[in-house]
Write a structure and sequence with these properties.
CATH architecture of the largest domain: Sandwich
GO molecular function: calcium ion binding
Protein name: PCDA3 protein
Main location: membrane
CATH topology of the largest domain: Immunoglobulin-like
Pfam families: Cadherin, Cadherin_2
CATH class of the largest domain: Mainly Beta
Shape: rod-shaped
Largest sheet: 6 strands, mixed
Strand content: 35-45%
GO biological process, one term: homophilic cell adhesion via plasma membrane adhesion molecules
Number of domains: 6
Helix content: under 10%
CATH superfamily of the largest domain: Cadherins
Length: 730
């Protein structure tokens, strides 16, 4: 609890005020060794801690009037420092007043000149005494020494203010008593009472028997504090019925209450006009009292007095003042509504409506002002914050009083918003459609994805990964191998690169999901689907299909059925022997054999055409460009020899095109179809029989034509799809 001591001023040195060691609850020990001492804050009083006993004692003169002046309460705050161990205690010391100051008059003597013609009842103002004490010790009473001509009149127009008048009760006679010496005594209310005196010397003047007379004994005036210098306060008027110089009146201000009024007012000695020569301030003084003296020019001059009471009216000349007493920033963006951001204090030195202050904030959103105590406001959240939309607020707090016109003040408050991880990474596209040519090497970049996280710092730092948890991330062909066996994603840049060379013949589409994960707590995730279409390249040469049966080596010295490939790789059918027979005299167009080949590529790369490479020029045989059927170009003659050797090349339509070659040995025999039938029944291995009549050739040609149309249609659809995709991407 708070330890309080009380000391009467002027206490003797060494007076014990309290046993600190016991009152503070300290444990026993050497007081001097633990070094308990007083640390002063502000005004110093003559007290200290006794090193031997630990008591608080008076060390020098304690004067309440020196420490606190006229304040009603005189309380001093002491800090006691204990060094071993280091501790601080707070003690409040109250200094009580004693009646140690006697009343004091402004001067030891007051000279007053009064005409012998002054009438009984004439009043002459006297200056009162002052007492530095407070309370009852400063309550003054006045007495005047016994006199048959004068009495003392004390008036109390306002609390704690007394007006003294010396009242003439009996006409004066200069010839009898030219000078009256009176003693004015002021006594305070202390016990015992102290007194102060002032000698009043009254000089009796002769001749001029009419003093000036004011038309009012008290002039009451009200002026707003905003009036400028030179403003007329009031015009006092006194008349003197005497003639000549005895009737000319001169005005002067005799006393000012408070004394600071001497710097604010002046009077024209001839006209009696009182004007301002400074600025009024309601907040400093609200009431001025002036004693005006009017005297004539007689010898001796006669005078009279009146009072002017000036009440200062408040105007709205002080703008409100705003202070930020506490500020809690930055504010997290997930702070709840009602969070207190700042505490502010507001005040206005004016009074009444001019001092009533209202506050508001701009912008009005997302902050508001709340007041629970007079002059104290809280800046609170009234809406949720979003750092990604506004990362800092410049808040202007306005305070306006109730005056007319009102005055306004403002105070800027900077409120930064701190980030929380409330935004998941977001890809620029939900679905990425990518084309990739086959056979690109491992490590080649096939796509690039990008996800943006508007959060700040680690909350916005994104890492990418290939998600291995869904069936959609597996290639739709090629045995349902996982997407990670084809592609990988760089964690920092989002670059998708090939783990191995992609083969269109193995997989045409790889669909997978890429995850973007931020570094916040907890981490947030965004997903995007990547559709990787493998574009076919012409990387496969045509391959001749093997024939049924064994080899026919030895039937013809030039036979052997050799199949040669321009791709520098021999087909598995290269070891087969291809034989065919044709009859002399057969009609043109007779089909003697059919070359069959396939290409693992697709589209134009798999569209095959057949050509006779050898013999060049016009030979007896020709081959169907797209069907591969070998037929007679004309009727065969004996001049064509017993056999013909044909080298047939099969090419695709790729760029560049690839090809394969086949060697066909055709034996020319007699006997037409019967001979061929006989040969067919001989079960010669490797025999390529001609088609059964013209009808079989027509059906085969018709089928080949539809095959060509189908390939063209599929290729056209593929080309149109590529064009549409390119247009959409553009």
């Amino acid at each position: 609890g708070q330890v309080r001591y009380s000391v009467a001023e002027e206490s003797k040195v060494g007076t014990v005020l309290g046993r600190l060691w016991q009152d503070l609850g300290l444990e026993g020990g050497d007081v001097e060794a633990r070094r308990l001492r007083v640390v002063w804050q502000g005004r110093r009083a003559g007290v200290e801690v006794s090193g031997a006993s630990g008591a608080l004692v008076v060390s020098s003169r304690v004067d309440r009037e020196e420490l606190c002046g006229k304040s009603a309460a005189c309380s001093l705050r002491l800090e006691l420092l204990l060094e071993r161990p280091l501790r601080v205690f707070h003690v409040e010391l109250e200094v009580t007043d004693i009646n140690d100051n006697a009343p004091l008059f402004p001067a030891a003597r007051k000279n007053i000149s009064i005409s012998e013609l002054s009438l009984p009842g004439s009043r002459f103002p006297l200056e009162g005494a002052s007492d530095a004490d407070i309370g009852a010790n400063a309550q003054l009473s006045y007495t005047l020494s016994a006199s048959e001509h004068f009495t003392l009149d004390v008036k109390t127009p306002h609390e704690n203010r007394k007006l003294l008048f010396l009242v003439l009760t009996k006409p004066l006679d200069r010839e009898t008593v030219p000078v009256h010496r009176l003693m004015l005594t002021a006594s305070d209310g202390g016990r015992p009472s102290l007194t102060g005196t002032m000698e009043v010397v009254v000089s009796v003047l002769d001749v001029n028997d009419n003093a000036p007379q004011f038309n009012q004994s008290v002039y009451k005036v009200q002026l707003p504090e905003s009036v400028p210098d030179g403003t007329l306060v009031v015009r006092v008027n006194a008349t003197d019925p005497d003639l000549g110089p005895y009737g000319d009146v001169i005005y002067e201000i005799e006393t000012f209450d408070p004394a600071s009024g001497s710097d604010l007012f002046c009077i024209d000695e001839k006209s009696g006009e009182i004007r301002l020569k400074g600025a009024l301030d309601f907040e400093a003084v609200t009431l001025y009292m002036l004693q005006i003296k009017a005297k004539d020019k007689g010898l001796p001059p006669l005078s009279n007095h009146c009072s002017v009471e000036l009440e200062v009216l408040d105007v709205n000349d002080n703008a409100p003042e705003v202070w930020v007493t506490s500020l809690s920033v930055p504010v997290p963006e997930d702070a709840p509504v009602g969070t207190v951001v700042a505490l502010l204090s507001v005040s206005d030195r004016d009074s009444g409506a001019n001092g009533r202050v209202s506050c508001w904030v701009r912008p009005a959103s997302p902050f508001a002002m709340e007041s629970r105590l007079l002059g104290s406001y809280s800046l609170v959240l009234r809406e949720a914050l979003d750092r990604e939309r506004v990362w800092e607020y410049e808040v202007e707090v306005f305070a306006e009083d109730g005056g007319q016109p009102s005055l306004r003040a403002s105070r800027g408050v900077r409120v930064p918003v701190s980030d929380v991880n409330d935004n998941a990474p977001r890809f620029s596209q939900a679905v990425y459609t990518v084309l990739c040519r086959e056979n690109q090497g491992a490590g080649a970049e096939v796509a690039r994805v990008f996800a943006r996280d508007p959060d700040e710092g680690s909350n916005g730092r994104v890492r990418y990964s290939l998600w291995e948890g869904a069936a959609g991330e597996r290639a739709p062909v090629g045995g349902w191998r996982p997407a990670s066996s084809y592609v990988s994603v760089d964690a920092e840049s989002g670059v998708v690169w090939a783990v191995q060379a992609l083969d269109y013949e193995e997989v045409q589409v790889v669909q997978f999901e890429v995850r973007a994960v931020d570094a916040g707590e907890p981490a947030l995730v965004g997903n995007a689907t990547v559709q990787l279409f493998v574009v076919d390249e012409n990387d496969n040469a045509p391959m001749l299909l093997p024939t049924t049966g064994g080899g026919g080596a030895g039937l013809d010295p030039f036979a052997g059925g050799v199949v040669k490939s321009s791709a520098e790789a021999s087909s598995a059918s290269a070891s087969e022997t291809l034989w065919a027979w044709a009859s002399w005299g057969g009609p043109a167009g007779q089909v003697v054999a059919k070359i069959r080949a396939v290409d693992a590529d697709s589209g134009y790369n798999a569209w095959l055409r057949y050509e006779v490479l050898e013999p060049r020029g016009k030979g007896p045989f020709r081959v169907g460009v797209y069907s591969g059927e070998v037929s007679t170009a004309r009727a065969l003659e004996e001049a064509d020899g017993p056999w013909q050797r044909l080298v047939i090349v099969v090419r695709d339509h790729g760029e560049p095109s690839r090809s394969a070659t086949a060697t066909l040995s055709v034996s020319l025999v007699e006997g037409g179809e019967k001979a061929l039938a006989g040969l067919s029944s001989s079960s010669l291995p490797g025999l390529l029989l001609p088609a059964e009549g013209r009808t079989a050739g027509v059906v085969s040609s018709w089928t080949n034509g539809w095959l060509v149309v189908s390939i063209c249609a599929v290729s056209s659809v593929f080309v149109v799809s590529l064009l549409l995709y390119g247009a959409c991407r553009w």
